[in-house]
Design goal:
This protein has one helix and nine strands, in the order E-E-E-E-E-E-H-E-E-E. It comes from Neiella marina.
Length: 112
Amino acid sequence: MSKSAITTHILDTEKGCPASGVEVRLFINDAAEPIAVAATDQDGRIINWPQSFSLTAGEYRLCFALAPWFEQQQRQSFYPSATIHFVITDTGSHYHVPLLLSGHGYSTYRGS
């Protein structure tokens, strides 16, 4: 299965399940407009973005719209959004950037 050069996954650590339907925007450098926008699938993943883009060296941001998702879950959250800011130097690699999420915290790491 083919996948985008940048993928993500959101796991709701409070409930121990994927966070599906979260809108995610992908930006490069200081661009005001995203290069791609998608919502996480049933497994909490974005494997292929609807918009194609070429991976270039630079700074990227994944911006997760959390408030609407928590509201839909009828849960409160301290964080209305989360932004993961990362640097790509090797354009031949795949970058998987997961978000581990709860109502009062989140963490991330470079996955595989």
